[in-house]
Write a structure and sequence with these properties.
Strand order of the largest sheet: 3-2-1-4-5-6-7
Helix content: 40-55%
Distance between the termini: 41 Å
Number of helices: 9
Structural class: alpha/beta
Radius of gyration: 18 Å
Number of strands: 7
Shape: globular
Largest sheet: 7 strands, parallel
Length: about 270
C-alpha cells in the first residue's frame, strides 16, 4: 500500500543528534528535524548557544517534541562518547546522526601552517569518523540514518579570483577534508547497508554569514558563479535535509546532494 508523503516525511518517535546544530546552517537542520516531529539533540562546544536554540525551536514548533542541548568537543573522544551516551540515556537510542559541525581559520595557501592543516583535517574529517564509529551500535540497532554535511568545494576547486585577501580566503584544508567526507559517505553507504543504515551527504554552496554579506562586491562575485545568480538563504537546505533524513528518501543512499544554486553544473 502506498504511503502518503506526510507519513513518509514524519519523524515522530525518532531521535536526531545534530553536531553544530545551533550554527548558521545547523540551526535550520535542527529546526527541520523538529518540525517533522523528531526529538533533537543539539551539540557543540558552546552549550549555552545550544540551549538557546533548543528553547527557540521548542517555542516555534507546535509538536510534542523534546530538545536536549549537550556540550560536544569533536576533538575529544571522551566528549564524543559522553554525547552519544547521554543521548541514548535520554531517548533510548539515536535514529538520525547529522555531522554538521565545523570550525577553522581563514587561510590561504601562503598563510596556512601545518598545524592549521592538521586541525582542519581533524575537525572536518577525522571527527566525522570518530562520532560515527561511536554512534554505530545505536544506529545499527535502529537501522538509522547518517547525514554528513560536505561542501561543493569537496568536488570542485575554489576560483582564486574570488577569494582575494585575508577576509575571504579559502583554506586548502577545507576542500580536502570535505572531499574526504564525500568519499567516506559513499564507503559507509556500501559497508553499513547490511545493517539497514542509510548514509548520504549534503553539500551546500554559497551560504555566506550575515557579516560576510555586508561586503557587496564579494557577494556579487559569489552570486555570479551560479546559474541562479544569487547566494543561498539558510532555509533552503531544509528540503534536502527532510528528504535525506526521513522515509521520503528511504531508497536513497551513498549520494552527495548539492544545494548550490547550480554552481557545480558550470
Amino acid at each position: 500500500m502506498s504511503k502518503s508523503i506526510h507519513d513518509l516525511l514524519s519523524l515522530e518517535g525518532r531521535t536526531a543528534v545534530v553536531t553544530g546544530g545551533a550554527g548558521y546552517l545547523g540551526s535550520e537542520v535542527s529546526s527541520t528535524l523538529a518540525e517533522l516531529g523528531a526529538n533533537v539533540v543539539i551539540a557543540s562546544r558552546d552549550r549555552e548557544k545550544c540551549e538557546r536554540r533548543c528553547e527557540e525551536i521548542s517555542a516555534a514548533v507546535q509538536k510534542p517534541i523534546q530538545m536536549l542541548a549537550l556540550e560536544l568537543d569533536l576533538l575529544d573522544q571522551r566528549s564524543i562518547q559522553n554525547c552519544i551516551d547521554e543521548s541514548v540515556k535520554r531517548f533510548g537510542g539515536i535514529d538520525i546522526l547529522v555531522n554538521n559541525a565545523w570550525s577553522g581559520k581563514k587561510n590561504s595557501w601562503e598563510s596556512i601552517s601545518l598545524e592549521d592543516w592538521k586541525y582542519d583535517i581533524d575537525m572536518s574529517l577525522n571527527s566525522v569518523f570518530c562520532i560515527i564509529k561511536t554512534a554505530f551500535p545505536t544506529l545499527m540497532g535502529r537501522r538509522g540514518v547518517i547525514l554528513n554535511v560536505g561542501s561543493m568545494y569537496g568536488h570542485i576547486a575554489p576560483d582564486y579570483r574570488i577569494y582575494d585577501g585575508t577576509n575571504f580566503s579559502n583554506p586548502p584544508s577545507y576542500g580536502a577534508a570535505k572531499a574526504g567526507v564525500i568519499q567516506f559517505t559513499k564507503y559507509l553507504a556500501s559497508f553499513l547497508s547490511p545493517h539497514g543504515i542509510r548514509v548520504n551527504c549534503l553539500s551546500p554552496g554559497p551560504f555566506p554569514h550575515a557579516e560576510t554579506q555586508k561586503h557587496e562586491v564579494f557577494i556579487e562575485r559569489l552570486a555570479a558563479k551560479n546559474p541562479m545568480n544569487r547566494i543561498g538563504e539558510p532555509h533552503e537546505v531544509k528540503g534536502a535535509v527532510a528528504l535525506l533524513c526521513s522515509d521520503a528518501g528511504s531508497y536513497i543512499t551513498g549520494q552527495n546532494i548539492c544545494v548550490d544554486g547550480g554552481w557545480t553544473t558550470w
